[in-house]
Every structure is written in C-alpha cells, then in structure tokens.
Amino acid sequence: MGTPEEPANLAFLRRLVTVLTIIMIGGVVTVVGLLVIRLNEEPAAIPLPDRVTLPDGTTATAFTVGSDWFAVVTEAEEILIFDQVTGTLRQTLTID
User: Fold this and answer.
1) What are the contacts of 52-59 at 24+ separation with CB within 8 A?
2) Residue 54 CB neighbours (<10 A)
3) CA distance 13 to 6
4) Residue 7: φ, ψ to 5°
5) Closest CA to 88 of 55, 47, 45, 48
6) pTM over 0.70
7) In angstroms, how far apart are the furthest CA atoms of the chain?
8) What are the distances in angstroms from CA 30 to CA 1, 4, 76, 89?
9) For the stretch 55-90, what's the b/e string if a residue is b when 16 or more beta carbons lie within 10 angstroms of its beta carbon?
C-alpha cells in the first residue's frame, strides 16, 4: 500500500511553522545580542561641575543633575538648586 499522501494545506502549515520558528529564534538571538551590547557599553558621561560652593556650615548628602541645573540635598533637610552654567544658587527648598 505505501504511505498516504499528505494534503497540500498540511504541508504548507508544516513549512510555515518551520519558517516562523526560525524567525522567532533569530529574533530572540538578536534581542539578547543587543541587550548584551548595550549593557556592556560605557555609560554616557554626565556633565558635572568642577566645584560646588555650598553655604557655610552645610554638608551635602545627595546630588542630582537636571537639564540646566543641579541640586544638592544637605543634612539640614534643604535642597539647594544651582545654575549648571554659572554655578550660582537659584533656589533653596526646605523639606518639611
């Protein structure tokens, strides 16, 4: 008797699943490769001021940078906001 011939649509589905599996494996390999490349890159340098002059008697506990400003959080629960270009004090916020 021999083996029965498979229908054309079943052969098409088998080829389609095989192609889609190969594409999915390629996509996963690409995503993993891009993640490895991006995570191993050196982070972009953040422009930090050379020197920050704080008011007398204040001690910095945290520092953050914005688009055109930087802020220093002090032990006295204040946030000092400075201009990034000139280094002058823009604003002082008290944390309640």
Assistant:
1) 52/82, 52/87, 53/87, 54/80, 55/80, 55/89
2) 13
3) 11
4) -65, 155
5) 55
6) no
7) 100
8) 47, 40, 50, 48
9) eeeeeeeeeeeeeeebbbbbeeeeebebeeeeeeee
Check if the beta carbon of residue 58 is closer than 8 Å to that of residue 75: yes
- Strand pairing report for 69-74 and 78-83: antiparallel
**Cα separation values, 50 from 28, 33, 71, 83, 85, Å:** 44, 37, 14, 13, 11
Q: pLDDT per residue over 21-39, tens digit each? A: 999 999 999 999 999 999 9
The pLDDT score that the predictor gives to residue 1 is 64
Q: What is the pLDDT of residues 77-96, one digit of tens each?
A: 999 999 988 888 999 999 88
| Pick from 45, 40, 50, 47: nearest CA to 65 | 47
